[in-house]
Amino acid sequence: MMSPILDINDLYLSFSTEEGELEAINGLNLEVEQGKIHGLIGETGCGKSVTGRTVLGLFDSNTMIKGGEILYNGDDLLAKTQHELQRDYRGNEIAMIFQDPGSSLNPVFTIEDQLDEVLRIYQPGKKADRKKKMIEALDSVRLPDPERLLKKYPHQLSGGMKQRVMIALNLACQPALLIADEPTTALDVSIQAQFIKVLKDLQKEIDITILYITHDMAVVSEICDQVSVMYAGRIVENVPMEELFNNPVHPYSKLLVSSVLGPETSIDNLVEISGSVPRLINPPPGCRFHPRCDHAKPECKEEPPELKEVAPDHQVACFKEDLS
Hints:
Layout: E1 4-17, E2 20-33, E3 37-41, H1 48-55, E4 63-72, E5 75-76, H2 82-88, E6 94-97, H3 111-122, H4 127-140, H5 146-149, H6 159-171, E7 177-181, H7 189-206, E8 209-214, H8 217-223, E9 226-231, E10 234-240, H9 241-246, H10 251-258, E11 308-311, E12 314-316
Parallel strand pairs: 3-8, 3-9, 6-7, 7-8
Antiparallel strand pairs: 1-2, 1-4, 4-5, 9-10, 10-12, 11-12
Helix pairs in contact: 3-4, 4-6, 6-7
């Protein structure tokens, strides 16, 4: 594996709440290789979105970083001030698309106004140079007649066009890493397919790295090169995408794959994942998946298993003896 562009090591993060301390991320280890689309998959409540926001230092006031490091090209982002993150990383190096990105556009400003604001903040310069970058950004996401489009307001665009404009907004400053947090959740199937195609094409054309956060296994199969399966604040399996669907190893990964309805899957063979992600104010000891696992044994309740190599680019955190 090449040197990762993003390397999260032993990250611990909690939230202070009225009920107590919520352990959202518990010893997270994640490597994202440059030039790849890396999926972060898991059920709602596993800590996926928190992970993405933490990379950019987007913390609420009740956030507590308990340990670990987030290395971007070798620089520890957790050691940076908010001013340094804003000046040197957000927008220019790392950009983020949030859930339902089309609704993030301001309805009272034109597309040109909104793109220009991003460029003035992160890459100030001559108006003519910024205009050129706007057109290039819109053109890169296959939007026709970008000069005319700049004069339009969001309500004048279709849903699919608004999604592409949001990608363009995030790519205007030419970041090396794009974090996409459940960007297709609110989209219908046709717009979702367009969105995924644009991202895949961009990744090939400009060699951008994408961390794609989702709970949708079908989307993972369409877009990702490598996948990290997350459960209750920890990574339980790192695996190439095709290997995840052909030979998942961790019991949780197997359940996720078995719960997906594919073109050749009989409804009778679908598996329902019983139970739910534990409340992280009082999480179970040891492996946090053990209350839902058919293979749990005494040691699973004592300490969390570490990730170990089972094949090239494939690591699993499980105490099972036959990891296959």
